[in-house]
Design goal:
The protein is of the alpha+beta class. The chain has 6 helices and 28 strands. The protein is about 25% helix and about 35% strand. A 5-stranded mixed β-sheet has the order 5-6-7-8-28, with no helix packed on it. The longest helix has about 35 residues.
Length: about 475
């Protein structure tokens, strides 16, 4: 029997004993009797309050973990429940109206202060102890999906303390395991993606408090960078399909009744030194996780349709079980266009639960995506790799808080995992079916990393698309 089960099995006995002592002593020693019953109430409150807390937040357990609240919630509610139970028993046995009034105030204060302490204490301790997890764990969970790797390097997006809108890119040389930061207090860096040979790194730089987005292509060896595109539209998931030929997703800023957002996405192609070409006219709410192999484009989308009515995605896939947010299109390379399909696109990789954020190997033989069971209220995404020829599947179980999408590099599939106090990058060698450690770094060391100096060359691609 578990410790918790033993605890709860003792609870009826303790309450009955407390009540018996109270009944026996209330005439002879009323103070001792009240203390006995109050201790029983404290035991009951200490047992029941954390149990109720765990039951109520069970559907949101992962989110509470990311905020650090699940860890703190059980002991705080245990203490709060004990105090509340103690006061409730005293109030029940109070002899005077004035005593009951004071105990009512104390009891109400306990009920109000317990959740306040729960939300404030982790942040106060994080500030006092200078623990970076307290104020950035949620940001880390959001940025874990921005990960890329090559045979030579690893890059991932991390939050910074500058602002909740500012991101940096952590770059790691796999040979030396030496990390460095691409960071600037005036810019946020997003969407890193290596070329297949690992010689170039694409990323998007966004100027703080503006709509300016710049697409960069940098030579990793020298950090000589070219500004491929400057636009006020967003730039999503750029991928190099040939040397200096890039496909990405983009949308203008759309004004809706409730807010402004980028919700009319289409595919674009740009060659370094030339103007962008629009490949499609779909106006999708989202186009991300773009992969191009031969004449196929594999990508992710929420598939809710679009306000323009041009969407090519099957809306009913949102409500299916199993469910997938992965789709595939044909790409006409010679004509530089994506033909509009004759039918609404059905999702790919309906393997159970919810699947999304696809990645594809260079030869198209391996596809990996995040996958989770649905219907249980708590989404913990594992990483699933599928051999497109044989259909064989490999599942890499989540051990920490979140997994990134995969990045293929040669015969390896790399991924980043968000732990409680660090990032952990590992690789799966699919020919040997082995998983190896590549790199890990504690959050506390990120701010002390050296910055990578970029040498910028401004291109002529600027303005709206």
């Amino acid at each position: 029997m578990s410790l918790a089960a033993q605890y709860f099995s003792l609870l009826p006995f303790l309450l009955a004993l407390s009540a018996l002592v109270y009944v026996v002593l209330r005439k002879m020693a009323p103070t001792a009797a009240r203390i006995s019953l109050a201790l029983g109430g404290a035991f009951a409150g200490g047992f029941l309050a954390p149990a109720v807390f765990v039951f109520l937040i069970e559907p949101f357990r992962d989110g509470w973990k990311n905020f650090g609240l699940f860890f703190w919630g059980v002991p705080i509610f245990f203490v709060g429940g004990m105090i509340g139970g103690f006061l409730a028993a005293l109030r029940w046995t109070a002899q005077s109206a004035e005593g009951r009034r004071k105990l009512n105030i104390a009891l109400s204060s306990t009920f109000l202060l317990t959740p306040v302490v729960l939300f404030l204490l982790p942040n106060v301790l994080a500030f006092v102890l200078h623990d970076p997890r307290g104020d950035t764990m949620q940001d880390r969970r959001l940025t874990i999906y921005k990960f890329t790797a090559s045979p030579k390097s690893v890059a991932l997006v991390i939050p910074t303390r500058e602002s909740d809108q500012i991101r940096a890119i952590l770059f790691v040389d796999r040979a030396t395991r030496q990390p460095g930061l691409i960071a600037d207090s005036d810019f946020s860096y997003e969407a890193p993606r290596f070329s297949w040979d690992g010689e170039r790194l694409l990323f998007v730089r966004r100027k703080k408090e503006t709509r300016q987005h710049d697409l960069f292509s940098c030579f990793v060896k020298t950090w000589q960078c070219r500004v491929v595109l400057q636009t006020e539209n967003d730039v999503v998931s750029p991928v190099e399909i040939d040397r200096d030929v890039i496909i990405y997703s983009s949308s203008p800023l759309v004004t809706l009744p409730d807010r402004q957002r980028y919700s009319h996405h289409d595919f674009y192609l740009i060659k370094v030194g030339s103007d962008p070409i629009q490949l499609s006219d779909f106006s999708e709410v989202a186009l991300h996780s773009i992969n191009v192999t031969g004449d196929k484009i594999l990508f992710g989308s929420f598939a809710p349709g679009s306000s323009t009515g041009k969407s090519i995605l099957a809306v009913d896939s949102v409500f299916s079980d199993p469910r997938s947010e992965i789709f595939e299109l044909t790409f006409d390379r010679e004509a530089a266009r994506i033909p509009t399909p004759s039918e609404k696109l059905k999702p790919k990789f309906l393997v159970g639960g919810l699947s999304g954020n696809p990645s594809m190997s260079q030869d198209g033989r391996k596809v990996a995506f995040l996958n989770t069971e649905t219907g249980k209220g708590s989404y913990r995404f594992n990483l699933m790799a599928v051999d497109t020829a044989s259909g064989l599947q490999k599942v890499i179980k989540l051990e920490g808080n979140n997994l990134s999408p995969a990045a293929f590099a040669g015969d390896q599939m790399l991924f980043n995992e968000l732990m409680n106090d660090r990032y952990r990058v590992r690789s799966w060698d699919y020919s040997a079916d082995t998983i190896n450690d590549v790199f890990e770094i504690e959050f506390s060391k990120l701010e002390r990393l050296p910055h990578i100096e970029l040498s910028l060359t401004t291109g002529r691609n600027s303005g709206a698309q």
